[in-house]
Design goal:
- This protein is α+β, with helices and mostly antiparallel strands.
- It has a domain of 263 residues: Phosphatase 2c, domain 1 (4-Layer Sandwich).
- It is 26% helix and 22% strand.
- The chain has a 6-stranded antiparallel β-sheet with strand order 2-3-13-11-8-9. Strands 4-5-6-7-10 form a 5-stranded antiparallel β-sheet, covered by helices on one side.
Length: 388
């Protein structure tokens, strides 16, 4: 009885019973098989075209591990049947939504030649050609990007990126600290000076905020003094003159959460030379800190810079309204606000709300005729409270 039941289950599953000769079929069974498989009918009538395509051939699989048995296998196993393993369906291949080859930085005006020139390498690799970060602190969202400019990357050999930035916070998470530096092009190793300046400035502000818990003017003055000293030390360590590491710098301290019920924040800015901070106001920007650009042939010349003039730092305090957008930039981006028609409004609209870091990086790497300098931007979006 058990053997007959096993044969019936095997016949339904399409599996041949192992180690057993096939059982002779009766004439009725043979006729049924011929009719099912499309063979000639038992009555001798001519064969008819099957209504559906013939079933595919099956092969008897070998024994499968118990862990791979599909649902329903225990019932077959109790009858001594080895169940076939069912292969899981494969997931569809991932299809990218955007073709990377079509993603390009924004273009203002005609296409400059530098947009299609290959990037070259520096002889001594000190800084990367691109740096980017994003962060959240309290009710603040941050995007940061720095890109070597066409005038530096298209040379052979290339010149190192002379812009540098650093973003930090105090231990309690009450303040965001931003430092942005722009190395001077006629200073041989200003890339080193800018990198050392921002690192030391953020470390100095962070240490004093951890001690006092409150931002003030003295903290920023001390940060510029500390950066100037660190730049001189770095230059001497590389046997360079102090003049070889000259740089401009701006430092900002932004509270992570509003300081009153109206959602306002009281932010501090300290700067030397033409690195600048801008507040998004209406359809454009308003400059908060940094020397304004002068007109004429010497518009890119600066009178004060680090490490020589740390006492010339200018400190200002501004009230940031709820949902304010503030960006701290080198003149590679600041000049686009003032020199390219319509660019200030374009960036104001683009940076109205936080965006993916990849999009922000492309924006900072914009193309425009005559804009060849390194460009750096650290943009901060403020929410009225700590919820984002």
């Amino acid at each position: 009885m058990l053997r007959k039941l096993t044969r019936q289950v095997l016949r339904v599953a399409g599996v041949r019973e192992p180690d057993a000769p096939p059982e002779p079929r009766s004439q009725a069974d043979q006729a049924s098989v011929r009719q099912t498989s499309g063979g000639p009918p038992a009555t001798g009538q001519p064969p008819t075209e099957p209504a559906t395509s013939p079933p595919r051939k099956r092969t008897a699989p070998g024994p499968a591990p118990a862990a791979q048995a599909p649902v329903g296998a225990p019932q077959l196993a109790s009858a001594g049947v080895v169940a076939p393993v069912l292969e899981a369906p494969r997931p569809p291949a991932a299809v990218p939504c955007v073709d990377p080859a079509t993603v390009q930085p924004p273009m203002f005006g005609r296409v400059p030649r530098a947009a299609s020139v290959a990037w070259h390498l520096t002889v001594e690799p000190t800084t990367s050609g691109i740096a980017a970060d994003q962060a959240r602190l309290g009710g603040l969202q941050v995007r940061a990007a720095s890109i070597v400019g066409p005038s530096h990357r298209c040379e052979e050999p290339a010149v190192a990126r002379q812009d540098s930035y650093r973003v930090g916070r105090d231990d309690a998470g009450r303040h965001l600290i931003v430092a942005v530096a722009d190395g001077m092009s006629d200073s041989r190793r200003s890339d080193i000076g800018a990198m050392v300046a921002v690192r030391c400035a953020v470390d100095s502000v962070r240490e004093e905020l951890n001690h006092s818990g409150q931002a003030d003017e003295a903290i920023l003055y001390n940060a510029f003094q500390a950066s100037a000293h660190a730049m001189v030390t770095a230059a001497r360590g590389k046997r360079l003159p102090e003049d070889a590491v000259r740089s401009a710098m701006i430092v900002a301290i932004v509270p992570a959460c509003p300081e009153n019920d109206s959602g306002e924040r009281f932010a501090w800015f300290a700067s030397i030379a033409d690195v600048s901070a801008w507040l998004h106001v209406g359809p454009t920007w308003r400059q908060l800190a940094g020397d304004p650009k002068v007109t004429g042939m010497d518009r890119n010349q600066v009178r004060h810079f680090l490490p020589h003039y740390p006492n010339e730092v200018r400190v200002v305090r501004h009230v940031l309204p709820p949902r304010a957008t503030v960006t701290v930039v080198t003149d590679g981006v600041g000049d686009a606000f003032t020199d390219i028609p319509g660019a200030d409004q374009w960036f104001a609209e683009r940076w109205r709300h936080p965006m993916p870091l990849e999009s922000f990086l492309l924006d900072v790497g914009y193309h425009a005729s005559g804009q060849l300098d390194d460009r750096t931007a650290v943009t901060v979006w403020c929410e009225p409270d700590e919820r984002w």
